[in-house]
Each structure stands twice: as C-alpha cells, then as structure tokens.
Amino acid sequence: MRTRYKQRAVNYLAENFKNQFLLVDDEIEIKKIQDFVNGDNSYLEIGPGKGRFILDIAARNKDKKFLVIELDRTISGIALKKIDESGLENVRLICGDFYNLAKFLNSSRFRGVFLNFSDPWPKKRHEKRRLTSKNFLLEYANILSDDGLIYFKTDNDNFFEYSREMFINYGWKIVYENHNYIDIDEFDGETEFENRYKNQGINIKRLILKKDEKTLTKSKEEEKENEQKICTIL
User: How many CB atoms lie within 10 A of CB 35?
Assistant: First the structure.
C-alpha cells in the first residue's frame, strides 16, 4: 500500500535529528552510524512503516540497538516522530537507500535483519526492487554476523513462495517456518496492519533464516561472476 505524500511529515524529517542519521558520504556522519551499530547486539529493520513494530520490540529489549532505514520521506517522517515521542534511546532512523547504507557497513555486523510485510512488487520487471531478490540477499550476507538471522513476515502468498525459493537458492538455512503465524513470539512484534490481516482471516507467513557457510560461498561465487562480467565488458 502506497503512502500519500504528507508535507508535515517531510518537514518533521527535515527539522529533527536527535534520533536520525544522515546517509551522506561524510566521514562524521558515517562514523556516527558505524558507532551505533558496532558491537554484537544491533538489528536492522528495512521498511519500518509507522514504527509500531520497532518501537514495541525496542521497548522490550533495551539492551539491544535497532536501526531502521526507509526510502520514502513521508513514511520516514511519520516513523521518526513516533521514535522521538517514545523516548527510547536504542532506536535510530535513516531516510535513504539500503544499498548506500550497506556500502558503509563493511566492518559492521548486525545480529538480525527484519523484513516485515515488504512491498511484493508483483510485476516481473520490478523484481530487483523486492527485498528478497538476489542483490539484497547478497548484501544481507555481508552485513550480518556469522550467526546472523533474517526475520521475514508477509501476508502475500506469491511473495512468500518467491522469497522462500530465493532464500534456499542463495544458501540461507530455514530455522523456523510457519504458514499461519498467529501468536507473537518474545522477539517479535505486530506491525500496524498485521492484526488487521489476522482479523480478516489472512494467514501471516513467517520465516527465520540463518546465514551459514553455503550463504557465504554463494555470495563469493556471485561476486566473482560479477567481476568476470565487468572484465568481459571492459
């Protein structure tokens, strides 16, 4: 579901920086991000919606740090305001492109990545935009710790099947799978629409996936293939 442009939210994003990092190629800003996620207790959510999920899980896990990244400025502004109002000290937001963030985090490692009800981008020509497409999976392998996990939820059957197949193809080990996820576990939370989906009788599908040696091998193979393609073109 697309969010309408809201000038008030965009203005809020442009004027409030206590819990926001700027994703710019600036040494000071990059170090702020790296310092926040350094350690072994940091988690990343891509696409926070209005922030209900991340604020819920962050409030119950104050010993952990949570970074959220969102490309849309309206959604970012809404989520940032919620984060500011929560008073939590362990949540930060970045408005920007995940790929630009990933290139600054080669020396950082997240314990987990949350993908909650991501846009399925159903048209074939939009496949690269799906958060479970090849390039994203390879980046997740790079930024996650050796025992890092991906936490994935969706209401969309086709997107679930596509994502499950992609995870398997790229060496991710399924450690949890549920096609009718009803009860929220202790390290999870509901998004704004999740309860509504359940009340409508729509099954929530959930996967938890672990990075392992196969993931790393596949990532290295893809990088080598890409280098060879570039050399061939040159």
Answer: 10
- Can 119 be counted among the known catalytic residues? yes
- Tens-digit pLDDT profile for residues 99-152: 999 988 877 789 999 999 999 999 999 999 999 999 999 999 999 998 899 999
* Residue appearing with tokens 């950082």: 108
Of the residues 56, 72, 84, 119, only one is catalytic, namely: 119
* 47: pLDDT strictly greater than 70: yes
Cα pseudo-dihedral 22, 23, 26, 32, rounded to 10? 60
pTM of the model: 0.92
